[in-house]
Design brief:
Length: about 400
């Protein structure tokens, strides 16, 4: 337990030895600093993601007081209204209804139709990096690609797109462990501003529907049921936040991983058509962008003989699960040709990531384009990690071509 220190820069840079110690030490560990139970094993994480005795929220069954929790401060309400009406933090029956409606607009065909756009945007960004002789791969390619894609999907004008990433970064700061009041204030401000922006956009699309996701969400209905305005706003914010935070970090973290494993990068460069798909999956497993996913315990559960009572919070350690030797052969070895790779990066159960096909499309486009257009891509400087642990990524990744 002493090795698990999510506020330590050394731990954030390499949490995997600590995970190995946790797995060796048992299946459930009480972590006092966050008042959570850490769950490090693949089988347990996978099972609990599907276990309906746990939930992303408890408010569909209990009040804060009944659950033994203190209600959040009134000043945080804009964040909690925005977050609490999104798919990620809802449970049945609301989650079932909203996911069904959103799925009508966010179909595999919709994603498939985006492929030429994603490829074009990736090529433009990579061409810019190559023309400059290199630079910060994170700022030049990893960040702008998923933001541009989701903005295209939502129909957000290009002139407004620089607003999106800062709003997203401020909002997801609340998902870190024990966020400060300053973090909360930024998240509240971003929630208010982003919601107001989307409310105006929805009003425009109601009057003049377009060929975009916002218009499709307005039109989505099932047996007379429709999304409320707040549900649409929360869905759009979630699609942006979840749809690019992980993709940004998988891209940058992935190239940092490649630079530290030159044999695997060489293998991929030698056979990109054959290995790109498995390489994308392996990068998501090997250095997971979302390290932890939290759930509330709605009814007592037993994990390996440890009873975790109702009212507790479990921290499902995705990064540890994806390196569990009980499920993955040689889990600490990067293998771009790995076939048996049921990583848990996109979650499981009813909250399985709706945007997984889009994330895979974007990652394949950016990595594939960089392999072709910058065959000599190399590291220019050792990177530093952002301080956040839950959503784990680099500050920058300086490269030369």
């Amino acid at each position: 337990m002493a090795a698990f220190d999510p506020w330590s820069p050394d731990f954030v840079a390499d949490p995997y030895p600590a995970y190995a110690a946790l797995r060796a030490g048992g299946r459930a560990h009480r972590f006092a600093p966050t008042n959570q139970w850490l769950i490090p094993h693949y089988a347990d994480v996978s099972a609990l993601l599907r276990d309906r005795r746990l939930g992303r929220t408890y408010l569909h069954r209990f009040t804060h007081e009944e659950f033994g929790r203190t209600p959040p401060p009134a000043a945080h309400e804009p964040f909690h209204v925005l977050n609490g009406n999104g798919l990620l933090d809802l449970e049945a029956p609301d989650h079932t209804r909203i996911r069904r409606l959103v799925s009508k607009a966010f179909t595999p065909r919709t994603v498939e139709q985006l492929a030429p756009t994603v490829q074009r945007l990736a090529a433009e960004l990579v061409d810019g990096l190559v023309a400059d002789g290199g630079g910060d791969l994170l700022a030049a390619v990893a960040e702008p690609l998923p933001v541009a894609v989701i903005a295209e999907m939502l129909g957000i004008p290009e002139s407004d797109r620089p607003l999106l990433r800062p709003w997203s970064a401020d909002i997801v700061g609340m998902f870190e462990l024990n966020p400060t009041e300053e973090t909360a204030a930024r998240a509240v401000r971003a929630s208010v501003e982003f919601s107001a922006y989307l409310r105006e956009l929805i009003a425009v699309r109601r009057e003049a529907p377009g060929d975009d996701l916002v218009s499709a969400l307005i039109a989505a209905h099932d047996e007379g049921d429709r999304l409320s305005e707040q549900e649409m706003i929360s869905t759009c914010v979630l699609l942006l936040n979840a749809g690019h935070e992980a993709t940004v970090n998988t891209t940058a973290n992935g190239w940092w991983t490649f630079f530290r494993h030159p044999d695997q990068l060489a293998a991929l460069r030698a056979a990109p058509d054959a290995l790109l798909s498995t390489a994308v999956e392996e990068l998501m497993r090997f250095d997971t962008p979302l390290q932890m996913f939290e759930r509330w315990v709605l009814d007592d559960i037993d994990v390996g003989g440890t009873v975790i009572p109702r009212g507790s919070e479990v921290a499902l350690l995705f990064g540890s699960a994806n390196r569990d030797p009980a499920r993955f052969e040689n889990p600490d070895v990067l293998d771009v040709a790995r076939k048996d790779n049921p990583h848990i990066t996109f979650g499981a159960g009813i909250h399985f990531c709706l945007g997984a096909p889009l994330a895979r499309l974007e990652l394949a486009a950016s990595i594939g384009t960089l392999l072709r257009a910058a065959p000599e891509l190399r590291l220019a400087a050792e990177p530093e990690w952002q301080p956040g642990y839950v959503i784990r990524g680099l500050k920058e990744l300086l490269v030369e071509v």
